[in-house]
Amino acid sequence: MNTATLTSPTADVTVAPAVPKPEPIAKIAIICSKGTLDMAYPGLILANAARMSGIDATLFFTFWGLDIISEETVDKLHVPTVGNPSMHIPTLVGGLPGMESLATTMMKKQMEKLDIPDVRELVEILDDSGAELYACRMAMDMFKRTEDDLLPQVKDIISAMDFYDKAAGAQILFI
Hints:
By secondary structure, the protein is an alpha/beta fold. It has helices spanning 37-52, 91-94, 99-113, 119-129, 137-142, 160-166; strands at 4-7, 12-15, 27-32, 56-61, 132-136, 154-158, 171-174. The protein has a single domain, classed as DsrEFH-like (Hypothetical Protein Ychn, Chain: A). It has 6 helices and 7 strands; from the N terminus they run E-E-E-H-E-H-H-H-E-H-E-H-E. Strand 1 and strand 2 form a beta hairpin. The radius of gyration is 22 Å and the shape is globular.
């Protein structure tokens, strides 16, 4: 870094060159690949924050992330307790009957206390705000799902290559 030192009779002053301000983010593309309750919220909340900030948002749901946008599963997402190091409980305890249900209930109550919409409502909010939601063609075929299985807010079923076309110029996040 170049610095200039200005000398005066009373003090030495070091002046650093101005750092250019980064360009604001104009577009975000989020790949949602996991279908648990604790993994649905990060992508949806980031997309909502983007839209509230005037940033274009595209979401691509692939593999288990399809559960977030599937009519049959969207209201049944759960918090996994086995193999989840953030739970801070032994795997054996996490595998006990009712633990997953308890963790899910606790998370939903906490989200409700914070006035955070449930997953279905967040998907609706995103659609209403202009975010674009897409299902992955390969994952849909692999899991034998059809367009009729998806929430009405899903704009289309597209390939990974189509997603990259839609994400051109965007910051891409993989969740």
